[in-house]
Recover the amino acids of this structure.
């Protein structure tokens, strides 16, 4: 596992850590991680990334090499000697974490994760937690739209080469499959996360032979009925005709360019006329949910979609604004709910829970309340997943998370899941939370 | 180093590898990595990511665990036994690589990197090479725009929490500094790549104290003249007034919200009236190059800019279309230049070099030609960086790369570097390349 390490953080987390240890070592903080505003075209998010976040918290240590290096950082020179001698070597995350399950649907302002820990512990982990959870959540949310557009046809995640580095590629593959993609082409992600693995062939294979049909024959000779032939390197229609004439029986052909509606129709007709009714058509080439919806509604005879950039980089909303905000602190037994009042960035105080109220299996609205709002009806979304820095249960396997996502998405009204102009579920603020927000300190 | 590993690839690279080894083991391929089309608002790219690409190629191995797992992959079941028994265990990258230096300026269709190797070797590495080089190049290119907009004021890379995972955060910090950012807040990136490291304080620090001024005092008590105080948690103007009254002398204040032009003016006036002329003003809060240009042109008294999402996710163009295309193959001593003719995706055949023609230190135009175009005038951009799988020189340090980027960017006419409606340098095709493209096989 390439887990983030203790130094995968912003410098100010370390200076604040040193500060908390020096001036307020007995302070406990509660932070909540949420998204303040959903990007355009999004009415909901599919939460993901919790597995990596909990592994990171459990394994968090400063190595002696890291500490030796930190001693040389000018910005940390004013930190007390005990910070380097005692605090960092003994550092562990010993806090409590509540979170929604991966695959759960959340809306703006709803906590995805809540951390309660000593101030220094809760502060250090902000950067890594936000990066991990926000990224996988944004990929899962985008993938769920693409999968919906495909209307039951399999979507394969093909975006590794466009991802922001190879770790990002693996995490994108995982999040995409969690949210409904049928498979990925990323080998390491398939190995690590037990994802279905699929592949086709590249243009280079075709170009490496003197004749396209030679390239198809060589590949089919080796991979037999499993072969997927890429037929658009030179002339798609001619390639389809020639592979039929040559008596090849690929499991599928892939088309990566051109007008996919007309080309897929022509190719389908050629394959069918040649007796290759079982040969499927996979299309790819910079597809997003809108292009896929159009292909589906036009009746193009496409059996599955390979989707890259738009999922793995979340191209239309690559920087989902996940934040991690202090909502409560406790010092000497005194609990203080906290808020930030910065222009346009107001936060809600207190430890929160979210309840989803449904009727006949359809979600009606959410209530964002305080954890002590025990009278709330509906299903509470956050559960305790870590105590004293230890996970309470092993990570569920991906199949269980996929099923969770499928069920949660299935509860949403079509107004929420529409590709165009979707409307979020209403999130009501409980009377107790509303009262606390109005009375909060510093107002 | 978290280098990508052999399985950080697409499945089809492995099936094609098995195919090449089975049917054409003596084939040598040359691939070129380039960007087909620049995103909107971009007229040039700043190349980056080569260091990690070469480290990856040098260290590439299949472990016995990985091979054991690959034997269980159904899609690879048809591969010959020798593939698992001999090819994978003995696999090394033993090819030759030509590349432009990191920090070099390149345009569409110009090779950033060229790989010549046995077909299986050259093919396997496509996914990782494209991901690494495209991502760092897209960050460096974006960062160079942001730095230009800041017109000499320092830009600090603050985007780790928005990056697509923590490896992505580190690579973004590196690429941003390479292209002109003055520092990063990412601790691990600073350690690994020797980048200047800076930090401020978070809203949570302020919120964790009963009173904002207590929070400022505690932090200043520890960090003295180095302290940077974040003053927008509740009321920015009041915070500035109170820190002056309290006699604090922070090195800087940070403002993260509000109308930055008017607020920075008011804060500057308060600091100056209080004798804090040396206290700088740092602004942040979802800034991009256009907002920064506006702040600069409005004369806002801002000393430096903290920039996050727009650099670390390359928000306006997160999926730069880097491709890796077969341009030549050699079998039994016969060399064949290759092209792809797919609709809208035509490629140029042959091993290429790019020459930049300049006059009086200003770039006039580029020539894309064949390596054998030795008569070309101008500076050739690609040099040989790896032979027989070994780097020819150790990686230069980041300061040298920054200086390279600064010089290369400095050669560009303002029409190319303009923030709005920039125009790329003309890239001419050499007569020999043009003739080869017209005559290329399969036309």
């Amino acid at each position: 596992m390439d887990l983030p390490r203790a130094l995968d953080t912003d410098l100010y987390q370390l200076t604040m850590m040193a500060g908390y240890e020096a001036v307020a070592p007995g302070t406990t903080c509660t932070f909540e991680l949420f998204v303040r505003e959903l990007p355009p075209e999004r009415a909901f998010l599919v939460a993901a990334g919790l597995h990596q976040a909990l592994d990171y918290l459990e394994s968090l240590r400063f190595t002696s090499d890291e500490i030796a290096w930190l001693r040389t950082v000018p910005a940390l020179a004013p930190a007390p000697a005990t910070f380097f001698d005692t605090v960092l070597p003994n550092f562990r995350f010993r806090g409590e974490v509540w979170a929604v399950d991966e695959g759960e649907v959340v809306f703006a302002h709803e906590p995805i994760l809540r951390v309660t820990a000593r101030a220094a512990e809760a502060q250090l982990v902000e950067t890594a937690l936000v990066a991990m959870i926000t990224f996988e959540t944004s990929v899962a949310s985008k993938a769920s739209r693409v999968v919906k557009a495909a209307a039951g046809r399999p979507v394969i995640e093909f975006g590794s080469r466009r991802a922001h580095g190879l770790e990002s590629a693996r995490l994108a593959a995982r999040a995409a499959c969690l949210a409904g993609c049928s498979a990925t082409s990323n080998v390491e992600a398939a190995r690590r996360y037990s994802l279905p693995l699929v592949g086709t062939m590249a243009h280079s294979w075709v170009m490496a032979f003197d004749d396209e049909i030679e390239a198809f024959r060589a590949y089919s000779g080796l991979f037999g009925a499993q072969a997927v032939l890429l037929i658009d390197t030179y002339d798609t229609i001619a390639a389809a005709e020639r592979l039929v004439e040559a008596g090849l029986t690929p499991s599928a052909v892939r088309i990566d360019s051109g007008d996919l509606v007309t080309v897929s129709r022509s190719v389908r007709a050629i394959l069918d006329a040649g007796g290759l009714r079982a040969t499927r058509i996979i299309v790819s080439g910079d597809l997003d949910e809108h292009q896929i919806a159009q292909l589906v509604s036009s009746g193009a005879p496409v059996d599955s979609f390979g989707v890259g950039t738009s999922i793995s980089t979340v191209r239309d909303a690559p920087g989902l604004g996940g934040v991690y905000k202090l909502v409560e602190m406790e010092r000497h037994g005194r609990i203080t709910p906290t808020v930030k009042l910065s222009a346009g960035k107001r936060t809600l105080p207190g430890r929160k829970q979210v309840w989803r109220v449904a009727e006949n299996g359809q979600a009606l609205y959410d209530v964002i309340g305080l954890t002590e709002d025990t009278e709330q009806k509906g299903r509470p979304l956050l559960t305790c997943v870590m105590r004293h820095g230890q996970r309470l249960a092993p990570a569920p396997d991906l199949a269980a998370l996929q099923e969770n996502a499928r069920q949660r998405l299935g509860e949403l009204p079509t107004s929420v899941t529409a590709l165009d102009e979707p409307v979020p579920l209403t999130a009501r603020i409980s009377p107790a939370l509303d009262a606390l927000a109005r009375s909060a300190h510093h107002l």
Remarks:
- DSSP finds 17 helices and 19 strands in chain A.
- Chain A touches chain B through 113 residues (CB under 8 Å).
